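Handoff note, outgoing to incoming analyst
You'll be picking up this chain. Sequence as last confirmed:
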Amino acid sequence: MLFKSNKDLIGVDIGSSAVKLVQLRESKGRYHLVTFGMTELPNEVIVDNAIMDSAALADAIRGLVESLKIKTKNVATSVSGHSVIIRKIQLPLMTEDELEASIQWEAEQYIPFEVSEVNLDFHILGPDANDPSVMNVTLVAAKKDMVNDYVAVFNECGLTPVVMDVDCFALENAFESCLGFEDEEVVALINMGASAMNVNILKAGNTVFTRDVQVGGNMVNDEIQKRLGLNSEDSERAKHGEEVEGADSESVQEIVASATESLAQEVQRSLDFFSATSADEKVHKVFITGGVSQTPGVKGMLEKRLGIPVEVFNPFELMGVDSKEFDPEYIQNVGPMFTVGVGLAMRRAGDK
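Most recent structure output, in case you need it:
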């Protein structure tokens, strides 16, 4: 959203626990998977979406690019968290050029940072249904310090960041390209990562509510570690139902159920807050993605608590994937972890 280019690029999703890379090819109106991969990050490299160890992050990205034999140097990546502000605002009707000229002044009223400290972008949604003299606009502000930190890491790797997006919009991009939206349908897209969840609620394909929740799958692992005295690797295995010494399945299931209940409560809070601030609007369906979406019990827990249909979204299921090059079972298992990366890999010039 903040930088653009018309060249081919790779999508690089930097999370708190791993870096994920996706390269796609578009042919005859359909996306095809060229390559993808993931490398885990050491603890504390990314904390609250901020880069704490740029050298370790650069090493991870460089190693992933080399292992996948990527030749493309242009990158689309994304940011999220406290340093990113997304607001749906109303402004008098004006052209895009007029808003471009006045956006800094308009933004001052809506963001809690100094305008000089942020990169700004916007997307005009169109005239308001109730008052055609005003228009609805999505305003995005990202702190320059954070954006510059990400740019510096890619430059250190010999890569060029040409698109800087926001996680929830990359998620929306992947979903829209793969499934599309029904007229007037209100859906929630929730990316459930290791340390955070990105919530994006859309009506007829337009974002009407976003929220980043700073809890994620690590909560489940932390509880297993704390209560059963396991290390991080064994707690991850136990969470996914593998046999681990010192962790009987009944205890693990009880801990996972308790922790996923807490995650479900956070999702419900987001949906309740949206309903409270949007007259007569209710979410009709929830799509979950990200690594945590496949944790046993998460989907069922959300359906029970929310009382609406919940589906796991795997972007690879809906694009061209050569079964001779990629193991279908592996694609099925890891696909939801790459949704943001897929959305980034779909980005092109002029995207909003």
